[in-house]
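Input record (one chain):
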Amino acid sequence: MASRPDPREGLRAVAPKLMEVTEKVLFGDVWERPGLSKRDRSLITCAVLTALYRPEQLRGHVQRALANGVTREELGELITHVAFYSGWPTAVTAATVAKSVFDEQQK
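The corresponding structure, as predicted from the sequence alone:
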């Protein structure tokens, strides 16, 4: 199976400081703070990205959520719950993204 190119590298060519801050501050500090587990942070992030209709970023965070112990069933419940607060189209898009990630993991 061929590995996918890392999208961060393409962004680094355009906005190197953005990627530096993302890696050092967001993932190096905020995600490592002890106040919330990575699992909880993944749930929150997926909910926010669903509500804000950010499918490109949601894809990577669904992958991260699964790696952080969130189950497929929990992601489905999250999407269903958020639908009532952010709207049906955002939830349908999130479900489509999640299904795509789930399908890729089964290959």
